[in-house]
Amino acid sequence: MTKADVVNEISKKTGIEKATALAAVEAFMEVVKESLATNENVYLRGFGSFIVKKRAEKTARNISKNTTIIIPAHYIPSFKPSKMFTNLVKKNNKVKKKNKD
Question: Does the 46-101 domain belong in CATH 4.10.520.10?
Answer without folding.
Answer: yes
